[in-house]
Amino acid sequence: MLDENDRHLIALLRTDARMPVAKLAAALGVTRATARARLDRLMTAGIITGFTVTVRDTEPEGVRAVAMIEVDGRHAENVIRRLSGLPEIRSLHTTNGRWDIVADIEAPTLGAFDALLRAIRQIDGIANSETSILLAIRKGR
């Protein structure tokens, strides 16, 4: 179970994954040994699975979009498997509410984006979809 210090430690690392343990400890108000032990415990438990570099694109290349997809319940696993095989789909999220799946899409050109949407509409089990092109990044991680 995560306590407040664990959540604070994770938030600090999300801001700067390269923050030295001494700075993490100072921000948490604990010793370096305690900060290191917490970090090691979170990694061993699989709560922190890695550290990454994020790069801010000033102008995204290609076309980025979000597709909301409604699935006929009997075909959910097949739809997810088929969507997962499309290289233009960066991530898939199952959701609750009106839409069953949200797909993060990136295509190199508008033509490729159009072809991808046609391919998605052909997948058995997709009942409905709505796609929005992402225009500008206002905040990113």
Please characterize this protein's 3D structure.
With 141 residues, the chain is an alpha+beta fold. Helix content is 38%, strand content 21%. It contains 5 helices and 4 strands. The chain has a 4-stranded antiparallel beta sheet with strand order 2-3-1-4, with helices on one face. A hairpin with a 6-residue loop joins strand 2 (89-94) and strand 3. Helix 2 crosses helix 3 (32-44). 13% of the residues are buried.
- The residue fraction in helices comes out at 25-40%
CA-based shape: elongated
What is the rounded distance between the termini? Answer: 26 Å
Class inferred from helices and paired strands:
alpha+beta
Strand content: 15-25%
Order of neighbouring strands in the sheet with most strands:
2-3-1-4
Radius of gyration: 20 Å
The tally of beta strands, per DSSP, is 4
The unreliable regions are none
Write the layout of secondary structure elements.
Blueprint: H1 4-15, H2 21-28, H3 32-44, E1 63-71, H4 76-84, E2 89-94, E3 101-107, H5 110-121, E4 126-133
Helix pairs in contact: 2-3
Write a concise keyword list for the protein shown above:
alpha+beta, 5 helices, 141 residues
Structure described in brief:
This protein is α+β, with helices and mostly antiparallel strands and 141 residues long. Strands 2-3-1-4 form a 4-stranded antiparallel beta sheet, with helices on one face. 38% of the residues lie in helices and 21% in strands.
